[in-house]
Amino acid sequence: MSLLVTKPGLLDTIQDLGRYGYAAWGINPSGAMDHYAARVANFLVGNEDEDPVIEMHFPAAHFEFQKNALIAITGADFTPFINNEPMNCWQPYFVPAGSLLHFGQLKWGSRCYMSVRNGFDIPEWLGSYSSHIIAKTGGFKGRRLLSGDEIQFKEDIGAIYNGIKRFPWRVNVTEVYQADHIFRFIKGKEWEWLNESGRHSFEEGIFIIQAASDRMAYTLVGPSLPLSFQEELISSGVYFGTVQLLPDGRTVLLMADHQTTGGFPRLAHVVSSELPRLAQMRPGENIRFDSISQQKAEELVLEMENELLELENTCSEKLNSFL
């Protein structure tokens, strides 16, 4: 064995960047809610960005490391401890065999991610390691992690990092997560179905994330969004970040486990560079929306991708200096 779950968490699953190309079969992509945190977790330990990680919600699982490991924890701050000593998020650590990992309290965010150098030895399903809870496949046995589960590492790193406890670099993510609660979007196919009052309310109103929200969608309560007319809509493709208006007036914001098609008006699509911040929002928090152009949205996405590429190269260079 490599990693033993000694106490289960609320909802801890194996995820990667998603399962794409099967929407025509009705198979949604799943994957990490916060792609940025998952990718950086892998960069910090020298993995490829699509390698599987463990996504955790608070209260998170407790783990025992049966083998030496190089790990990183990113995303939400659940106050991690290794052998009762506090550890930093967004920083690589060498964890010797026999070490215990637990999380003390929720300080910020909604989901955190743990990577292990060389990844986890689990089977792929349709080209992805992501857990598909509804289909009961993918990830670790198609379900959340439970007490007694043993997750194998792909490779044993041996004692190569002995003598190093905490690697002397840490990623600064202030600009990614510490912005306000305004999320930029591009207008959806049915945006014009809203009347002038509805369009104004969407852009100027405040929406509250409801407790019923989950990995499939955030349910939002906010101002009324009246339509100019009613029309039957043929089910069409939807995506992570799509905002739909339901017949009862509720607004839903689709997340990682979203369905592949929907028959409700698609008012907006949150820009993908905003989704990491959105994934860390919690029920009861307020959000607002701000319209931008397609060109600006593409610039924001390209900017984040360039930053991630630079970060990947920097992490690789720093790790290589210790090998």
Q: Care to describe what's here?
A:
With 323 residues, the protein is α+β, with helices and mostly antiparallel strands. The protein has helices at residues 35-44, 174-177, 196-204, 275-279, 294-320, and strands spanning 3-7, 13-15, 53-57, 62-65, 69-77, 80-82, 85-86, 93-95, 100-103, 108-116, 150-151, 182-187, 207-209, 217-221, 236-237, 242-245, 251-254, 261-262, 266-270, 286-291. It folds into 2 domains: 3-175, no CATH class; 182-292, Beta Barrel (Cyclophilin), CATH 2.40.100.10. The strands form 4 sheets. The chain has a 7-stranded mixed barrel with strand order 12-19-16-17-14-13-20. Strands 7-6-9-4-1-11 form a 6-stranded antiparallel β-sheet, with no helix packed on it. Strands 2-3-10-5-8 form a 5-stranded antiparallel β-sheet. A hairpin with a 7-residue loop joins strand 13 and strand 14 (217-221). Helix 1 runs parallel beside helix 5 (294-320). The chain starts with a strand and ends with a helix.
Proportion of residues in helical segments: 10-25%
**What is the H-and-E element order?**
EEHEEEEEEEEEHEHEEEEEEEHEH
Instruction: Look at the structure and give the mean pLDDT.
Output: 93
- Distance between termini? 25 Å
Low-confidence spans: none
Major sheet strand order: 12-19-16-17-14-13-20
- Give the overall form: elongated
Number of domains: 2
Strand content: 25-35%
Content-based structural category: alpha+beta
The largest sheet, given as strand count, sense and whether it forms a barrel, is:
7 strands, mixed, barrel
- Rg is 20 Å
The number of distinct helices, counting runs of at least 4 residues, comes to 5
Please tally the β strands and state the result: 20
